[in-house]
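User: For my dataset I need records formatted as: sequence, then structure tokens, nothing else. Please produce one.
Assistant:
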Amino acid sequence: MIEVDGRRAIELVIDNLREIADPEFFVCLVRSNDLRRDREYADGLQASIERATGGRCRIVPVENPTDGAAATALLAREWIDPDDELWIANVDQLVRVAHEDIREAIGSRAGDHARADGLLLCFHDDDPRWSYTGIDERGQVVEVAEKRVLSHFANCGIYYVRRAQDFWRATERMMAAHRTAHGVFYIAPVFQELVDELQERERSRSDDRSARTLVLARTRRTHADVARHRLDLPRSCTEPRRDRGLSRTRSRRLESRRRRRDLQRSCRCVARETGARDSRRLRALAFLIAAELRCRFAP
């Protein structure tokens, strides 16, 4: 219960977070030992939290030591809607940041598809005791590491995720793979999991576009082969023939049988040259050749 300028530090931290993000609800994770220390201390801590949050809070006791801040954050999942925005902050720092930059990055609550899915507040440093964020020329996060200096952007301990469920999923994925820093699950590396997911989706889309291009190219070549071969149809397919001495109806029936026979022969010929083996491809070839016949027989 450290006091700064006559106020408890936790109240100042909550006020600082309200200036930055203006959350609608707070979940405060507190060690059970702090709540059991003595009645006066516990009542004072609870009163400070409720006063700073305006009563919009839930105090969750943490019974046992966890494997890190990320594991501790998972304990708040029960009281946070998966589709809600999520801000995570330590209780041992105050930051000064341009609020208009925050609003521009995360957009409006009404829903702006161009807004950021995640946000890391940073300061300039090169001390390896912090976590660090690497960005590209557009300011997009491309790498996040704990206790490793990969840029001059050190994370100050305040994080934002547009959808809480993304954070929970990435945290569970990190813990399942046991990706730790010195045996501890930190918050910052969770964002590396989110970056990896985004890159995987981008690669999947790229592979899908390449596959579609190949299929389209192959389809066009096949159709070109059919267009070339269907011009060499047997004469009986392109020129109707009427046998003498037969009625008109009988002659039409014989002509229909000849066309069907010659059409099947042509399909087999085209299939051998174009590599069509399955019945679906053969039906497609038959349809194209039949369409050619209809065009030629049209008056």
